[in-house]
Design brief:
The protein is an all-alpha fold. It contains eleven helices and no strands. It is elongated. It starts with 5 loop residues before the first helix and ends with a helix.
Amino acid sequence: MEQNFDILREKGLDVDAALSFTGNDSRYIKALTRYYNAYEKNSARIKNSYDNKDYEDYTIIVHSLKSNSRMIGDNELGDLAEKLQYAGQDKDVDLIEAETENLLTKYKELVDLIEPFVDNSEEDRAKADALKLSNELKSAIEDFDYNKSVEIYDKLSHVSMHASNKMILQGIKTKLDEFMYEEAAQAVGDLIIHLQGK
């Protein structure tokens, strides 16, 4: 189904350039979704590096924002991020202090604008799979069934999830291999809580 991106065009996004860059409507939607999902982490990193006067990290993150904003068609935000990237490289503190708030405001406005086009269905499916398998794993561990636990663990390790959850999962395997069933079950409980929150 062809998407109607007119609202994005009306707000000044170069949708046609973005479509030629990404390839087609569905890939553009994926790019918009990735951009949207990265907002919380990236905006926090910009604020952090700005507050801590870490101009090296500031330069890296605004460089990334420049490229990603242009990729989805926002050349205005891309240009502002580029200006601040060079300011970071040159340690032009005056320009950084004058424009960072403006950058963050425009970034939030863009994220709000693209929200209706975001498609997290793939991510939601992965999360549902991870939760289902985690609950099965907890039951198998509580039954002291090592072989079944390892079998479910292997399936779970192939499901896409946040890096911090992958680390919890690795810890579960270590506890299983040492036959620490109670601790392993507790760790699966922690994983389920994390999965529900992320």
